[in-house]
Each structure stands twice: as structure tokens, then as C-alpha cells.
Specification:
Two copies of one chain form a homodimer. Helix content of chain A is 46%, strand content 13%. With 246 residues, chain A is an alpha+beta fold. Chain A is globular, with a radius of gyration of 20 Å. Chains A, B: It comes from Paenibacillus flagellatus. Chains A, B: Belongs to the flavin oxidoreductase frp family.
Chain lengths: 246, 246
């Protein structure tokens, strides 16, 4: 263990912030750290929109189903997969960009996630708390309207930034053997690892809620995946100019 | 600046390794750090396959077009978007998992990227060097065969791990103003930022190659995006059980 690994291992989502602002110097240090993440063939296929305007944060909080921290955080970062700048670079050279492949969509989506995770680590190293906001995908057409998101840009998730008002607990993860395979992928032992994690998470929920929440990871997953959610996403992405035929 | 941000800002890909092994303790610390990254609604929709077998690494190096570091590194991690474990959890509860949405594909692809970037940071904090290997996507059917990758699992990228044999330079990134937008997405200034970065990268390539490589970022992007690459990917993903109709 070292201080960096200790920082990574201490991560927990923060959903309540003090009124202390995130300075512009902090924001720039965070974004510059994000930019140093690896990027596929240097395409740097991402952008980030820093939202501080209270009206915009309120409107985005509504998109997420009323998550109060989206409104309350001093800065909401909206992380976008972005092939638009690469298209500009191609145009500068007189080249029509090929943007209509699953490969390019995956490249941009991975690129933005790598950058965002570096940002999360940098922010936490500065004493800030963060939480990823997948809930912006509830209504990306509204997000697109609010943030004037143009063609070939896909807002993938938000991230609240702010100084933690109260701490929260570190949530246990799956046993490492469930996630780490050796030499080849093996289903052996997955069922037992899930059983073990179900017991861990049941204890965790019970302790955290004084017995009010009695559930397991498998029950949470069964509930989450029983119905399709956000099933307009493919149509939205096509509206933004992404294509998935090949 | 602090030591964590300094570590992030010092990142450069390492493609040549000493013979010093990556110990099992290191590997476990790295994967446990990866697991602490944020994950959408705790789905933890990823797996990682640690490949050390020389024959497998050689075969995977061939897939990447002969990248020698893929064979030479002591450990190659293959990071997979993975909805399979979530399906097992659903099955345990008697629920048929809905896995056929773009949303679930995006969730799993983002989840694995966040985890992998934490792994990269943890590895570098231990003095290891890393390089992401998008080249495994050259032929995922072969990767699937070699690593026995089952349904609902998508190997997104590899990552070489090892102690650096020689250092390499930190590659400049786009000006921060190209990537960071305020309140709304703005195209203003993108062309100028690209021009500035083209000059920076031209100087960087010339200095690094003693004048042999005279190119710009825009030229590199125009070259990269002029033709479709890996345009079998959508078909492959459907073979693995992913769907994109909604």
C-alpha cells in the first residue's frame, strides 16, 4: 500500500457539500489531470462542460429525477464523448471523417471515461468529494437543449464536485476472485462469489440503515435489470450523428 | 499540485519492460484499486483477465499487429465489459435480465474503463509502467477464442504491466480550453486551439525524432479517420449477445 492506493481504496460517493467553492485553479488542475489519461491513438475524443449556473443545475437535477446534490454541488461536470473536434481536425486537412462505426463510438466512450476517472482521483486528492451522475441519461434530449450539445457529442454522465459536508461509508465490492480471471475467463466459482457478496451486502445495508433495508446485491440487480431503462438511447445517439450499422 | 496530481500529470505509455516480475500482491492491490472506482448502480459490470502465459501473450501480440510489448510485458490485463455476472445474479432471483439495450452496453463499457483507469493509476504509483492496447480489437473473435470469453462479455482493451526498462516522454495534450467548456458547449475557439496544438505537436514530433517525423495532430487524425477500421465490431458484439436496437 502507498498513499495513492490508499486514496483510491477510500473512495466513496459524496452527495452533500459545504458552501466552500471549487476554485478555478482547482478546476483547471482537475481537467489537466483528466487530459493526461491515456487516449486511443491520441484522438482525445471527449469534452467536459463545467456547469455552475444555479438555474442550469436545477434543470439538470430535474432530469436526474430530483437528485438534490446535482443542484447543491458548486460545480457539476458533464462528461461528453466527442468526435466533433476530430472531425474539425480532419476537415482542416480536407478529409471527410469516417464517424459511423461502433469502433469510433466505443473509442470516444472509453476515452471520456478514462479522463473522467483521472479527474475523480485528482479531485479527491484535493479533498473534494465526487459522485458520478448516470441520471443525466434519463433525458439526454433535455440535457442537449440545456447545454447546447451539438452533433457528434454525447453527454455520457455527470460528476458533482464539492467539499464533503458529511462523510459516507465505503461500499464493499465483489470478492476480487469474481472479477479477476487468470489466463482465461472462467465461470467457475462465480455463483459462490455472488453468494458471498450477497451476505456481505445484506450485512452492510442492515448496519447502515438500522435494519430498515434488508436486501442483497442479487436482489438489487434483479430489480434493476428486470425492465428496460433509457431505451430511447439508441435513437438519441443517431439524432446526434452517431451510427451503429458496422 | 500534490503528489497524486503530479503522478497523474507524469503519465506516459511504457512499451519496454525489465524482467522484474509483477508480484501477485501487486496484481491484487491493482485490481482491488480498480474495483473501488465508481460503478453505475453498483452493477460492477466488468472483469479483467490477467495473462502471463508466454504463448497466449505471443498470440495476442499477433492480434495487435505485432506489438512486441504485448509479448514482452510480464502481465497483460485484458479488460472486459461484462454483463454476465449481473445476469447470474438476476437468475439467482428468478429474473430474466434485460440486456439488449444501448444503455446497458454503455454502462458496462464505462464501468470497465473507470476500473481500468484506477488500475493504471495504482500501477504507476507502484513504479510500474502501463500502456493501453486498443489493438486487441483488431480481431476480437481470436481474442475470444484464446481467452475463452463467453456470452455477454466484451474484451474492450488490453493493458501491459511491467517495470519500465527505459523512460519515454510525456506527450502534450490539447490546450485545456479546447476540452473544457463553461456552462454550455461552445465551438468558438476550437479552430484556433487545434491550430495551436498542431504547432505544439509538430515541434514535439520533430524534436523526438530528430526531424524525421514532420506531422501535426490534424494530419494524424485525418489519416486515422479517413477509412473505417474494425468495422466488424458491431457484428462481433451481436455474436457475444449484445443488442443495439433500442
Amino acid at each position: 500500500m502507498n498513499p495513492v492506493i490508499e486514496l483510491l481504496r477510500r473512495h466513496r460517493s459524496i452527495r452533500s457539500y459545504t458552501s466552500e467553492p471549487v476554485t478555478d485553479d482547482m478546476l483547471e488542475a482537475i481537467v489537466r489531470s483528466a487530459q493526461m489519461a491515456s487516449t486511443s491513438s491520441n484522438v482525445q475524443a471527449y469534452s467536459v462542460i463545467a456547469v455552475m449556473n444555479p438555474d442550469t443545475k436545477r434543470a439538470l437535477a430535474a432530469v436526474t429525477g430530483g437528485q438534490r446534490h446535482v443542484e447543491q454541488c458548486p460545480v457539476l461536470l458533464v462528461w461528453c464523448a466527442d468526435l466533433r473536434r476530430d472531425r474539425l481536425a480532419c476537415a482542416k486537412e480536407g478529409t471527410d471523417m469516417v464517424s459511423d462505426t461502433m469502433e469510433n463510438f466505443v473509442v470516444a466512450t472509453v476515452d471520456v471515461a478514462l479522463a473522467a476517472q483521472n479527474a475523480a482521483v485528482a479531485a479527491e486528492s484535493l479533498g473534494l468529494g465526487i459522485v458520478y451522475i448516470g441520471g443525466i441519461r434519463n433525458d439526454l434530449r433535455e440535457v442537449t437543449r440545456l447545454l447546447k450539445v451539438p452533433e457528434l457529442v454525447f453527454p455520457v454522465f455527470g460528476m458533482c464536485l464539492g467539499f464533503p459536508d458529511r462523510d459516507s461509508s465505503v461500499r464493499p465490492r465483489l470478492p476480487v476472485r469474481a472479477v479477476l480471471h487468470r489466463e482465461t475467463y472462467a465461470d467457475d466459482g462465480q455463483a459462490e462469489a455472488i453468494d458471498e457478496y450477497d451476505r456481505t451486502m445484506r450485512d452492510y445495508y442492515i448496519e447502515r440503515t438500522g435494519g430498515k433495508r434488508d436486501t442483497t446485491w442479487s436482489k438489487e440487480m434483479a430489480d434493476k435489470f428486470a425492465r428496460p431503462v433509457r431505451d430511447y438511447l439508441r435513437d438519441y445517439l443517431e439524432e446526434q450523428g452517431f451510427r451503429f450499422d458496422r
